[in-house]
Prior knowledge:
By secondary structure, the chain is of the alpha/beta class. 31% of the residues lie in helices and 19% in strands. The model has no long low-confidence stretch (mean pLDDT 90).
Amino acid sequence: MSIYEQGLGPSAVNHIALSPLSFLERTANIYPHYPAVIHGSIRRTWAQTYTRCRRLASALAGRGIGKGDTVAVMLPNIPEMLEVHFGVPMIGAVLNPLNVRLDAEAIAFMLQHGEAKVLITDREFHDVIHAAIGMLDHPPLVIDVNDPEYGEGQAVSDLDYEALLAEGDPAFDWKWPVNEWQAISLNYTSGTTGNPKGWSTTIAGLISTPWATR
């Protein structure tokens, strides 16, 4: 071993894994009262958004979700979509965003192939999600999001997203990733030439992607 490598292994003193979670934590601490979310009549600050993400992480952990578990989401570009991008990795779980234009067969395949433990879905997609869930022998825990700006659709589950957040701790002590090779997301192709093809992205891959820093 080179003299330059002796006693210089990674430790809590000289190393911390990179994570996009640092963006939210830092912003909430420095600019807590700045607007983070503007969605119709909804206005939330960075501090409020950080709290909701921690509540989500805590509630999912309380229901047995943890490192390496897949949390699928079928959501449009609404505040809850922002929250799952931070709340899910706070417990080391892997976020699986589903394409809202796909049919029930493709969605069912992805949920089964990706071993989704939880599905967070907007009521807007009731028909396709209800059909997809019906194709599974072991469906995930389904959590409904009711977007007030849309105001239509039907619930797939008895569990509402806001009720789930109410289960969570606003001061939840989320854990930093052990290393940057930990998976953070799972994505699928549309399956135009057969079954959808899935690929996972590590934290290192996400951080090093040029558009991730723009």
